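Two quick folds needed for the group meeting slides. Do the first one here.
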Amino acid sequence: MSVSTYANSTPSTIDYKSFRVFDNSEDTSDCNIQIRTLRQALHNHVIALLLFINSIVQLTTIPWILNYYRLEHVWPQKPTFCLTWTFIDEALYITTTLLFAWATIERHILIFYDRLLSTKY
């Protein structure tokens, strides 16, 4: 497909809803309240940790692997780099697996045994 064909196939109008992210109206205060309540909910802490840990994996391990595939050897060839890479890879993999197992158990308790977590006497 040539560039001129691609340029002619794109829509000429852009949907207004796609620009609602940049709108600074009263909807943002509602969004902030919803984000705050989601952060404070008990069952969302593990999900937030999983997102944080997996972002670290995406920012470190994936570029190192791609660099290894590109060069066909580890660069820089230092023992400390290899140990750091191995530690980060294994530790974050194990942590992600344990947190995901904990989130599964926590979701099961929240769904089927919701009276256990109630604070009413």
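Then this one, please, same format:
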Amino acid sequence: MLFRAPLRRRSPLFGICVGRRARLAYIGGEHGVVVPPEILTKRLRLDDLTADDAHALFTYRSHPEVTRFQGWCPAAVEDAGAFIARNATKPFNQHDSWYQLAIRAADTGALIGDFGVHFIGDDGQQAEIGFTIDPASQRRGLGSEAVIAVLDHLFTALQKHRVYASVDPRNEASMALLKKVGMRQEAHFRESLFWKGEWVDDVVFALLRSEWRA
């Protein structure tokens, strides 16, 4: 299942929700949280990517099942390490920027995916999401467990007004997941993106804070 992520790349999504809670670090200023959160669920921990994650990130991000819909595909472990280093220079919840969180197994801390959040516009009221799950960890409900936890964090802790995601409609599993977690299909743009040598459709799903847990 593949979801758009930073740089208009798409990422696999799988799973259903379990319990969740978030621990945040705040730094003063009008932009709110700038230190990445630690978001805990029954089976997952979402936190900052580290240099030690480079090999695992490279392994699943270069997997054929993942690269089909991804714009960023590391050619070597060093590329993954450079991506992590660049990510570490950014504050979390900074307007007009993407931030990539690690998705880890809560019991072992092993990296099993990554979750991108795009903080949109000068007013900071909207965000775009996209993430990738290692194929070895798919079809266990972990994708939706992660996405519901992040949605809850964006709407509850950060008070975002709207969160959206964009997906290739050929990716039926992701389409089903987005509907399952309560996101609405807002648009279907026909052949609107030139993607890897062909014109492809783009479907946008979204959710408002007022609709979250309504």
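Slide caption for protein two: The helical segments are 54-61, 64-67, 77-88, 142-157, 172-180.
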